[in-house]
Amino acid sequence: MARRRFRIRFSKLGRLKFIGHIDLLRTLELLFRRAKLPIAMSCGFHPKMRMSFPSALGLGFGSLDEVLDLEMQEQAGVMDADNLLHLLNQHTIEGLTFLSARLLGENEKKAKLLASIFQTNIPAAYQKHTADKIETFMKESSIPVTKSAGRMVDVRQAVLQMSFDSSTGCLTIELQTQAGPEAGIKEVLAALGLEKELFVSIFPQRVRCRLAEETGH
What we know:
Layout (H helix, E strand, L loop, with lengths): L4 E8 L8 H14 L16 E2 L9 E10 L9 H10 L5 E8 L9 E9 L2 H4 L2 H10 L4 E3 L5 E3 H4 E7 L4 E7 L8 H7 L13 E7 L6
Parallel strand pairs: 3-10
Antiparallel strand pairs: 1-3, 1-4, 2-3, 5-9, 5-10, 6-7, 8-9
């Protein structure tokens, strides 16, 4: 019997936004064991659960839409997506909600992230010039910004779309996945002159992971 693979989408909010990706992996492993899910294991001296993420969310960022590919053992043939989703939410912890589960086809590849959509509310003190800064940003062909590790990235090439709703103060940014050092939401905020407010009065969260399967790539 072939192993069954599932694609799971979940949200990571509240206090869980302050744990890193490695801690998230440990949390999920404990949750899967508590739910007694027959997860497939890797080979070698230190077997690990066979799960993969198209993108690791940075420390401090909440998310309404994360993606996880999970592989079950051969004896999990009776497991279906609805039952899996029920078990996950039955044994989950505060801040971690499983939104959907889908059985993958035999020839479907691992999830590939094409773009991430982030949203954040801009404090009133900074809203006055936000629209003008966005207009200037989108007109540029290149905007180099230095990452914290010292590498230079072009944030303009990373941004697919950016908009600001003055009635709500909500800033929406769509970032495409890049090869090599990526420009993230931190670097975009730096280009807009808002980096000092990150995790002070600005708390971005990922609201959508756009995958290759959604565009037919």
